[in-house]
């Protein structure tokens, strides 16, 4: 994932891989959609794109021991995940599990801008107003203090909404105040309150890990196995597929493609079809009369109610793999249009692997075109030789049998 273009706004948070079996490193994290499972730390972009991952293994977690002893677990995880980031380019967001004074000091030395919610006891209990004092002053009240150090310029903001929250940043403070609407239970109406810029930036960019969790949960791959290794493999596959779909959307935005964008479900289905069909021999359909038990359970009315749906075009990876593309001939009373782009001919010939009609029975359109046909030349099985000819060479042969064709 290091080869992906990294977004400007990044966040670090925990992710739970669902698992309830017997495992020493199994964790319980309250508030997560899947509270029981294997914990991992992720570095994600604002959209949910995952750039780095660290699996939590207790005392054997793959962290630098000297860094962990100096900064603690949470801060060392952030430094480990962000060690490959470019300087003076990214904005990092994390919650109070990771935030410490030493972490902000090190991030400023690494030229990484950061915002995080904090626990005040990790910052030597700074002289802030208490929650009761802020509550008396009303919703939207903010109190700000800053450090006066050469190597570490931090700004701490405590803001009261329904509850008080404390945030620290090494590049921004209260900033420009934004007016927002909130519901007041006592007055039973909406009221306008002010929100600092540091809170707005944190809320806008902190949900990257939650976004990737949401995408994975839509179409999670379930496997009936109690082995945690298989659960990890399946989760890694779902994570990579969600990442690929997000990159697909980024590419579509780059090339200004607004129509015919695939949603996550169709993207997964097309990916599965490519993995199944590409460079694989397709098992031929069984011929003959269906079994008696199938005929008894067959609903005849469903055949007539079935709606005709056009077959989807195969992807280029399957269409051009030159593997197992055999021609077939349908028994329909009418011909079907050739699915080759730009061709308007109609034919009975179709590709048995792609399940689309392709013209191969005429000469007016095919002569002079670059269409490769794999044939067996000869009159008997012993005389057959495999060759690759274009259509013009094929017309000069007298004894041939079509084996496969590629357009």
UniProtKB/TrEMBL annotation:
Pfam families hit by this protein: DDE_Tnp_1_7 (PF13843)
InterPro entries, per database record: PGBD
Domain PiggyBac transposable element-derived protein: 4-245
PANTHER family for this protein: DDE_TNP_1_7 DOMAIN-CONTAINING PROTEIN, PIGGYBAC TRANSPOSABLE ELEMENT-DERIVED PROTEIN 3-LIKE
Name of the protein described by the UniProt record: PiggyBac transposable element-derived protein 3-like
